[in-house]
Design brief:
By secondary structure, the protein is of the alpha/beta class. The protein has ten helices and eleven strands. The protein folds into two domains: 124 residues, 3-Layer(aba) Sandwich (Rossmann fold), CATH 3.40.50; 131 residues, NAD(P)-binding Rossmann-like Domain (Rossmann fold, 3-Layer(aba) Sandwich), CATH 3.40.50. Helices cover 40% and strands 15% of the residues. A hairpin with a 6-residue loop joins strand 9 and strand 10. The radius of gyration is 19 Å and the shape is globular. The two termini are 31 Å apart. Bound molecules: guanine.
């Protein structure tokens, strides 16, 4: 039986440490503020944004909630971003993706002030990460680093295999694993849809990060005893439930769990960590912008 890595528990420890930092900022009359921008009727995106706002409120972080019509021109979104960039009361900006097809998401990201880019997606922030001096680490891979650390999984010298090369998870995850820094120093392989002999590679992993975006893509034949499996997938699949769907990961839990050393569940694994690291980046942004140093967990 594999250890279940409890993302809710680790995220809750991080949130409570951040709550102290928010109090320190409040003592100095600084109230962190996160602006979320939603331009999508996608129910999953709506849920994510409202969860992010609820997390903030619980910690004493203020939120601005901006919603744009699906058919609004791109210039409306760009105007909103310009206004938030220029507003000294806003420390952090998050534009939920996806955005509609007529809006170029790349341009959206490039218009966000890199100091307020708490997703860590702006080319300047990605460049700093790749160069080895990150400002804001993207929330999901940063959360995975924290989860591994909390589990006592030392990445140094280990074979880390990342399945997926997305801008949000795969690429920054691989970059964090190869950093000469705590949570890095891993020998890192990035696999993707054109990888030959995928299972041969995933079976070599000490740490396997499944971020392919395909439900139950990794099965029991693709893992080895001793592997720590991190499942990034949050896929809604049709099911006979009250909501009409259920959440499944990129890992086929039933067949993988008996074969490996440790595994994150879905839900309750990586998801809560992503949300906690957004709070972390928001507190960090406020600290940087106000010049008030606070401890970060
Ligand atoms: N859509 C899915 N994941 C994310 C994320 O981490 N940040 C933003 N902005 N949009 C997303």
């Amino acid at each position: 039986m594999a250890d279940r890595i409890d993302g809710n528990e680790v995220a809750s420890e991080i949130r409570s440490a951040l709550a102290d930092s928010v109090e320190r900022l409040a003592d100095a009359d600084e109230r962190p503020t996160l602006a979320t921008v939603l331009m999508s009727p996608d129910p999953a995106s709506e849920t994510y944004v409202s969860m992010k706002q609820r997390d903030c409120e619980e910690l004493g972080i203020q939120t601005r909630d901006i919603e744009l019509e699906l058919d609004a021109p791109a210039s409306d979104l760009f105007d909103v971003i310009a206004e938030l960039n220029g507003d000294p009361d806003v420390n952090a900006i998050l534009v939920q993706s996806p955005v509609p097809d007529h809006v170029d998401y790349r341009e959206v990201i490039e218009r966000i002030d890199p100091e307020k880019d708490v997703d860590g997606f702006h080319p300047e922030n990605i460049g700093r990460l790749v160069a080895g001096y990150p400002r804001y680490k993207p929330c999901t891979p940063h959360g995975i680093q924290k989860l591994l650390e909390a589990e006592g999984v030392d990445t140094e010298g280990k074979d880390a295999v990342v399945v997926g090369r997305s801008r949000i998870v795969g690429k920054p995850m691989a970059n964090l694993f190869i950093q000469k820094a705590p949570g890095g120093n891993a020998t890192t392989t990035v696999c993707h849809s054109r990888t030959d002999n995928l299972a041969e590679k995933t079976r070599q992993a000490d740490i396997l990060v499944a971020a392919a975006g395909v439900p139950e893509f990794i099965d029991g034949s693709m893992v080895s005893e001793g592997t720590v499996v991190i499942d990034v997938g949050i896929n809604r699949v049709d099911a006979d439930t009250e909501k009409g769907y259920e959440l499944v990961g990129d890992v086929d839990f039933e067949s993988v769990e008996p074969q490996v050393d440790a595994i994150t569940p879905v839900p309750g694994g990586v998801g809560p960590m992503t949300r906690a690291m957004l709070l972390y980046n928001t507190v960090k942004a406020t600290s940087r912008q106000s010049g008030i140093d606070v401890e970060l967990p």
